[in-house]
Each structure stands twice: as structure tokens, then as C-alpha cells.
Write a structure and sequence with these properties.
Layout (H helix, E strand, L loop, with lengths): L21 E5 L2 E4 H13 L7 H20 L7 H11 L6 H25 L7 H14 L4 E9 L3 H4 L8 H10 L5 E6 L5 H7 L14 E10 L3 H31 L2 E3 L7
Antiparallel strand pairs: 1-2, 1-6, 3-4, 3-5
Helix pairs in contact: 1-2, 1-4, 2-4, 3-4, 5-9
Length: 273
């Protein structure tokens, strides 16, 4: 009796080595685990540390792709030479091939997006006087303005005495009111940006000839503000800052809309956005 030997061949399907590392895709372009690692390395070199760095890195890679795709519609993608120059300026040190490619892509996307904002958004932004005033107040509070300010300061003043301070009509009258109540007022003049941060914060929105609330047993009164020659240039800068903030807010909303239209596939649940 003949024995029939049946040989069974097991077919093994071999996937590309990096197929299992594809974490996501954006409009069909794969984003690998190595891409995300390279982006987190760049973030760390720029001092951007977070407990959620890998998810943030993936989001940044997706945003870069969306920005570049949109910028192509406006011929706003910078050339490689420009991008290389910007990379050198960043002084990121030694980069692997993947890290350099990721850095160049990120820089290209950022420059392209800035061009888009300048061309399509900034010309449409209109800033009100109230918004400029708000921006100026924030700068005054944080770093001071090129304004020469004359102040009166009363220290070691009891709260009950502070509440007795009447609103004066002049700086001299304010000094006399303080003296009549037994105080020893200090009068001095300084540029706002030379004042201590806590003083700047307290006088940022304080009307002229108005006593401030008591803080650490002291009150302040602004007698006079004089704009220096630097102020005119600063005013232009303040307007530009206000315009830019509004433009970037609009740009962020636009990016969210573009992101929603993109075909994003996340293969790893740990990276679900």
C-alpha cells in the first residue's frame, strides 16, 4: 500500500519593516513612530517639554501638512534654500536624518503659514481704539511704557487713614492731604519701565490724581504722565501687536477648519486626538 504524503506549505505574508510603526496618516501620507520621536526630540531641543509630548508632536505634524497643502494654493511655500537658512539660525545641534527632515518640514510649514497670514488675513483685520488701549495697558502692566511718571507714595499707612484720603485737584494738594493726616508722602519721577513690577501693575489702570487701594500698607497716586520721544514708535508697535494678535486668532480658527476637512486616520488609540 502506497503512502500518500501530503505536504502543506504555510504561506507567510511579510509586511514592510516599518508598516507596523505607522501611527497615523494625513491625506494618505503615513506618519510613523520614528517621525513622532524625531518631532519630540526637536521639541525638547527647543525647550518645549510636556507630559503629552508625543500626542502634541503628532498634532504638530498633522498641522504642518495641512498648512503646506493650503499654502500651495497661494504659491506661498518657501524654497529649500530659505528653509535651510532658518534651520541653521535655530542652532539645534547635531540632528539625525529623520530629525533634520522633520525640522525642515516644520520650518517650511511655519514660514508658509506666516505668508498666508500676511497675504490673506492681516489686510482684512481692523483694530479698534479700545483694542489698542487694551494692548497698551497690558504692556504698561508687564514691562512699563516709555512714559515719565510722577508718583506720590505713602508707606506704613493704616487702612482707616487711607480711606480718609480725599481726591486732590493737584499733586501739591495730594501732598498736603497726606501730611495733614500725619503721613510722610514720598514724591518721585521715573520712567515707567524703570519702576518695580508691583508698582507698574498697581498704576497701570490708575486714573490721574486718584489714590490707589492699600497694598502692603502703602498707597500710590499718579500726579502726571509725560510721553517721551520713544512713545510714538511704541504706539506704532502696539498697533502692530494688536493687529498681529487678531490675525493669529483668525488664522487659528481657519487652521481648525482646514484640519477638519483633512483626511486624518489614527491607527493607534493612544494617539487619538
Amino acid at each position: 500500500m502506497k503512502k500518500i504524503f501530503i505536504t502543506m506549505f504555510l504561506l507567510t505574508f511579510v509586511l514592510p519593516a516599518d508598516a507596523a510603526s505607522v501611527i497615523a496618516s494625513i491625506n494618505g501620507t503615513p506618519i510613523t513612530d520614528a517621525d513622532i520621536t524625531a518631532r519630540t526630540t526637536l521639541m525638547a531641543k527647543q525647550g518645549k517639554a510636556s507630559t503629552d509630548n508625543r500626542r502634541i508632536a503628532l498634532q504638530n505634524i498633522i498641522d504642518d501638512s495641512v498648512k503646506l497643502s493650503y499654502a500651495q494654493n497661494f504659491n506661498a511655500v518657501p524654497d529649500d534654500e530659505t528653509v535651510e537658512k532658518e534651520l541653521k539660525k535655530m542652532n539645534l545641534g547635531e540632528l539625525s536624518e529623520t530629525e533634520k527632515a522633520m525640522a525642515l518640514s516644520a520650518i517650511k510649514a511655519e514660514i508658509a503659514w506666516q505668508i498666508i497670514v500676511a497675504r490673506t488675513i492681516l489686510p482684512t483685520v481692523d483694530i479698534t481704539d479700545a483694542e489698542i488701549a487694551k494692548e497698551r495697558a497690558e504692556i504698561a502692566k508687564e514691562q512699563g511704557l516709555p512714559i515719565e511718571t510722577t508718583l506720590i507714595r505713602l508707606i506704613d499707612i493704616p487702612v482707616e487713614i487711607a480711606t480718609s484720603l480725599k481726591k486732590p485737584n493737584s499733586c501739591d494738594e495730594a501732598m498736603q492731604i497726606a501730611k495733614d493726616l500725619g503721613g510722610a508722602p514720598q514724591k518721585f519721577t521715573a520712567l515707567q519701565y524703570e519702576l518695580a513690577p508691583d508698582i507698574r501693575e498697581r498704576i497701570a489702570n490708575l486714573p490721574l490724581l486718584t489714590w490707589s487701594p492699600v497694598v502692603n500698607r502703602s498707597v500710590l497716586l499718579v500726579c502726571e504722565n509725560k510721553k517721551t520721544s520713544e512713545y510714538g514708535k511704541l504706539d506704532d508697535m502696539i498697533k502692530q501687536n494688536a493687529l498681529f494678535k487678531q490675525a493669529m486668532f483668525i488664522a487659528d480658527q481657519q487652521l481648525k477648519q482646514l484640519r477638519r476637512k483633512a483626511v486624518v486616520v489614527i491607527n493607534d488609540d493612544r494617539y487619538k486626538l
